[in-house]
Specification:
single chain; alpha+beta; Jelly Rolls; Arc Repressor Mutant, subunit A; six-stranded antiparallel β-sheet; AraC family transcriptional regulator; DNA-binding; HTH_AraC
Length: about 300
């Protein structure tokens, strides 16, 4: 059982011989927020704070990570595990029109089972092989590639919703409204709309919007909009050479100092410190000449 050396992404392949193997997230739950278990063959039990779920391979389990999350694979079983953080999750969701619906789908505990002859199960097996290989030998662009792989995994999983996917969260009432809120956030977060403005645009009261967000997502609307702005700020700081002043203006902040205060309150460090650390981490991966032959 090998772990990925990437700090924001932990993955590995498990092959059990004569005894049970356990993959636990307790030691890394503070670094990651999401998990995926793919059981290629054999029997396993996936555990979270919500309880246990028996898996018979091929099967896949996806959901928010907590300190009780672990996978117990019985002797003779084989599979893969992924633990990753919100930045990779957000990159995987992307900014496409379907992003709001995909986010809602991916924000709950989900389980899928497949027949051995099912082509989807076989495609997932190959996909996990590539994810594990990419994560265990990181190089220039590895996190971008991993985000793309996770997006493909999510889309394949999402497409199987009419087959055998079981949502573990049954709070479906209000799904249309929360999706509309997500779409409005994508359209207006750069204008720094307040939660009250979103409620007005939806034709509902602020109290209704607050209750909806807390019940469906577990977070108040103001925090969700702040997190969306924070994600955009991180991406711009990591992947562009734009100044903090320019990024502040693009994200609707009235001044660089306001942006600086916002970023520090969310991340615990200044935009400059974040960018410096991002450059250090990027420098650890060796660049290579582009070779598209091994691209999926």
């Amino acid at each position: 059982m090998l772990d990925s050396p990437l700090s924001r992404f932990r993955t590995g392949h498990i092959q059990c011989a004569l005894q049970e193997r356990v993959v636990a997230a307790r030691s890394t739950a503070s670094q990651h927020e999401w998990f995926v278990f793919f059981l290629d063959s054999g029997q396993a039990v996936a555990e979270t704070q919500d309880g246990e779920f028996e898996m018979s391979g091929p099967a896949l389990r996806w959901g928010p990570l907590d300190e009780h999350t672990r996978l117990r694979i019985a002797a003779g079983g084989a599979g893969y595990y992924l633990f990753f953080g919100t930045p990779i999750f957000e990159d995987a969701i992307g900014l496409a029109a379907e992003g709001a619906d995909l986010r809602m789908f991916a924000s709950q505990h989900l389980v899928a089972t497949f027949e051995r002859s099912d082509s989807l199960g076989q495609r997932l097996d190959r996909l996990f092989e590539r994810i594990t290989a990419e994560a265990q030998t990181p190089q220039f662009g590895s996190e971008v590639a991993l985000s793309a792989y996770i997006r493909l995994l999510l889309v394949l999983f999402w497409r199987s919703v009419d087959r055998d996917v079981i949502p573990q969260d049954t709070r479906r009432h209000g799904l249309g409204e929360i999706n509309r809120f997500r779409n409005l956030v994508e359209a207006h977060f750069r204008a720094r709309w307040s939660a009250h403005q979103y409620a007005d645009a939806m034709g509902i009261t602020y109290d209704r919007l607050h209750d909806l967000c807390v019940r469906m997502v577990g977070k108040p609307p103001a925090l969700l909009t702040r997190e969306r702005s924070m994600h955009e700020a991180r991406v711009l700081l990591q992947r562009t050479a734009l100044s903090a002043e320019r990024i502040a203006a693009m994200l609707g902040f009235s001044s660089p100092s306001q942006f600086n205060h916002f970023f520090k309150s969310m991340a615990g460090e200044t935009p400059g410190a974040f960018r410096k650390q991002a450059l250090v981490e990027a420098g650890k991966a060796e660049p290579r000449t582009a070779d598209f032959a091994d691209w999926p």
